[in-house]
């Protein structure tokens, strides 16, 4: 939760930062490469997006690739001005040395096609008042990038970061790890899944220990995550199939930060390739986090998270699918 900094402390830096609003962050930048089919293919393979609109002679680029065509790589952006560097240097000098990306917004006005040469301009759109968050105290900085092909505006990309001075917290001794010294009932409340009309069936299945996958009744394509319509043929009608639960680790990350009270980092989060062909993000358990590897065989299991007072609050226990390593690697860890 973000709140304003205490009224008793004047924000002397704020007016200096506000002076950067409206200043250019990049002028007449150019994309490193034209929009091209190989990058589109790599993107679609990584995302598991088989939409036919992104292949063939009339292909367009996935709209969400908008920012990808403007990235400067290790050599940096072309057209970058000094204004953004000066702003960030001011924040660093004030102790706001940490940074976290908070969100982005994109607007698509024109499809991008292979061969299009992308140019862009960027502006420092806004700098917030000083804010205090759980991470620390700092400022939200929003930049807006206008992406063009020739004189035509193709889309806009707003990117927001928090530059902050990290809050100082005492290190938690190993003996205080939740699973070692505290009963489950006293742990911090685990965030509950966001359930809506599009994905409610998935969570209802999880409560019954069923791993359900959507299936388009028009073309038979399986899909995950759950969507209101088929991204292959556009059909809005669907049913479900129960997955076998077998899969492999397609990719993974090890989470070290932030240390949220309901979790106990480090832990492994995997992108699981199910036997049915769809991919799902979940925790990988059964081996130490540093032994998780791409290609490990896994099988789904369902973990219940009972919380003190859940019944009184009208909440059912949280049931989450996780994936346990099977075969020769299993049994060496958790």
Describe the structure.
The protein contains 5 helices and 15 strands. It is mainly β and 334 residues long. The protein has 2 domains: 164 residues, Hotdog Thioesterase (Thiol Ester Dehydrase, Chain A, Roll), CATH 3.10.129.10; 137 residues, no CATH class. The strands form 3 sheets. Strands 1, 2, 3, 4, 5, 6 and 7 form a 7-stranded antiparallel sheet that branches. A 5-stranded mixed β-barrel has the order 11-12-13-15-14. A 3-stranded antiparallel sheet has the order 9-8-10, with helices on one face. The N terminus is likely disordered.
Which H/E pattern describes the elements?
EHEHHEEEEEHHEEEEEEEE
Task: Give the count of structural domains.
Answer: 2
The CATH topology of the largest domain is given as Thiol Ester Dehydrase, Chain A
Specify the CATH homologous superfamily of the largest domain.
Answer: Hotdog Thioesterase
Distance between the termini: 33 Å
Low-confidence segments, ≥5 residues, pLDDT <50?
1-8, 172-186, 308-314
According to DSSP, the number of beta strands is 15
Rg estimate, integer Å = 24 Å
Please identify, by name, the CATH architecture of the largest domain.
Roll
Helix content: 10-25%
Tally of separate helices? 5
Largest sheet: 7 strands, antiparallel
Class from helix and strand fractions: mainly beta
Supply the CATH class of the largest domain: Alpha Beta
Q: Tell the overall outline.
A: globular
In round numbers, the mean pLDDT is 86
> What proportion of the residues form beta strands (DSSP E)?
25-35%
């Amino acid at each position: 939760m973000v709140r304003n900094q205490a009224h008793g402390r004047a924000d002397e830096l704020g007016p200096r930062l506000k002076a950067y609003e409206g200043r250019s962050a990049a002028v007449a930048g150019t994309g490193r490469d034209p929009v091209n089919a190989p990058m589109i293919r790599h993107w679609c393979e990584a995302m598991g997006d088989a939409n036919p609109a992104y292949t063939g002679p009339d292909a367009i680029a996935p709209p969400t690739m908008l920012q990808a065509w403007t990235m400067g790589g290790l050599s940096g952006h072309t057209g970058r001005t000094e204004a953004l560097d000066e702003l960030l240097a001011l924040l660093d000098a004030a102790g706001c040395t940490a940074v976290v990306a908070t969100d982005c917004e994109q607007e698509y006005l024109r499809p991008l096609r292979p061969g299009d040469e992308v140019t862009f301009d960027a502006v420092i759109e806004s700098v917030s008042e000083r804010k205090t968050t759980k991470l620390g105290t700092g400022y939200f900085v929003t930049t807006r990038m206008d992406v063009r092909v020739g004189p035509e505006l193709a889309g806009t990309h707003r990117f927001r970061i928090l530059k902050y001075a990290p809050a100082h917290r005492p290190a938690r001794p190993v003996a205080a790890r939740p699973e070692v010294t505290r009963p489950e009932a006293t742990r911090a409340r685990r965030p509950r899944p966001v359930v809506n009309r599009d994905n409610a069936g998935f969570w209802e299945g999880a409560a019954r220990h069923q791993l359900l996958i959507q299936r388009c009744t028009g073309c038979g394509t399986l899909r995950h995550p759950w969507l209101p319509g088929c991204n292959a043929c556009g059909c809005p009608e669907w049913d479900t199939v129960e997955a076998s639960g077998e899969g492999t680790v397609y990719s993974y990350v090890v989470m070290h930060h932030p240390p949220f009270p309901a979790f106990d980092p480090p832990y492994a989060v995997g992108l699981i390739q199910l036997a049915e062909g769809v991919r799902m993000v979940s925790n990988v358990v059964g081996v130490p986090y540093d032994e998780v590897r791409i290609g490990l065989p896994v099988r789904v299991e369902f973990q219940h998270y009972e919380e003190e007072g859940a019944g009184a609050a009208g909440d059912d226990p949280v049931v989450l699918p996780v994936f346990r390593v099977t075969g020769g690697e299993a049994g060496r860890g958790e």
